[in-house]
Every structure is written in C-alpha cells, then in structure tokens.
User: Fold MOSC domain-containing protein from Eikenella corrodens CC92I.
Amino acid sequence: MPQTIATVSEIRIAQPKPFARGQISGIDKQPVAGPIEATPTGLVGDGVGDPRYHGGADKALHCYAQHHYEHWQAQFPGNPHFRTGGFGENLCIEGTDEWQVCLGDQWQIGSARFEVSQGRQPCWKLNERFGVPDIAAQVQHNLRCGWYLRVLQSGHIQAGDSVRLLARPYAEWPLSRILELIDSRNCQPQAMREVLQLPLPPSWQHMFQRRLDTGECEDWQRRLFG
Assistant:
C-alpha cells in the first residue's frame, strides 16, 4: 500500500513578469484554489522567465518544505519575504524535506503521478528576491534548496492532497546527500562514479562527469551572484 509521507498545503503559480537586472521571472507565485492540472511541462497557468535554466520536463514542478521557513525567519527576523511561497515553489510541502526525499521517489498526488528528478541549485535571483546579497549561497550551503518533480502521469491536484509514496528505488540517496556532494565541491573519483550510476537529469550528469574527468569543481560565481 502506498505510504502517505506529506501533505500539499498550498499550490502556487505565476506568469513571468519584470524582475531585477532587466530580467523576467515567474518566482512570485500566488496560491490557487481548487483543482489544477499537472502536465509534463508543469501546472496549467504557470510559467518561467528563463527556460534555459527553469521549467521543462525535469523541472516541471518545484517543491519546498514548509518547515524551512522557521529556519529562515529565525535567521532573518523581520524580513517579510521569508514566508510561504518565498522561494517560488509550486507545491508547499508539509511533512518531509531534502533529508527524507530521495532521488527517483515516485509520488501520487491527487490523480497525478510524479517522480523526484533533482534538487534545486539556487541562483542569484534569490538574492534579489529576499534582499540578502548571499542568500543563494546560504541556501546551497545548508541544503535547504527545495526539489523538482517530473510528471509521469498528468492529472489534477489541489491544496490539501496527500503525498503518497509509490516507490523508492534509491533509498540510500536522499537529496541532501547529492546536494552535499555538490556544495562540498567533492571531486573524489569513487564518489563521482557512485553518483553517476543514478538516473540523473542531464545537467547533473554533465556536472558530475566533468568533475570525474577533470578533478575540478565548476565555477558558481555567475549562478550564485549574477
């Protein structure tokens, strides 16, 4: 029997609009009431500002753990942006996080099925969003990054739906383990060979393969600070 592991407390969508530094972004997502359709390219009515780095089948929906906001509010008391929806998530998740969710987990939410495809790699837009110059780097370092889902079966979901775990083929690979490999700049050949055995999205496959081939970590300056 599928195990209930979490709840979707809110569902959020947005269309891209002007952002900082002449960019557009769909990060300012707002809650929706009632059922909404999840398709292989994301939620109906949702959009991204830069499809080179956001959206697509491997990043169809973004999830963020609700209880992480307690951490951020303690770190930045009085900052009004550290609240539900602040990280641009589509699904506000109660009951699980990156230390419990594993790569490749298959979920049932409403009538739709999903697969955990990768963790988020935060970018400089979070710095602008929260008004904290290095928040993207802080998010990466403490592994409270959020994660993405790909859609295995289209269907309708809504706030209040349970997240039911259908399969966990890589129980030894919680997202926090992979995110820590990234953040620690780990280039050890054995570690790289192990992670490359996983069904990684192309961007992560390329990143870890390059670390294995060159023994060097990628440059984060542009991603984290623009």
Observations:
- Residues 99 and 177 are 8 Å apart (CA to CA).
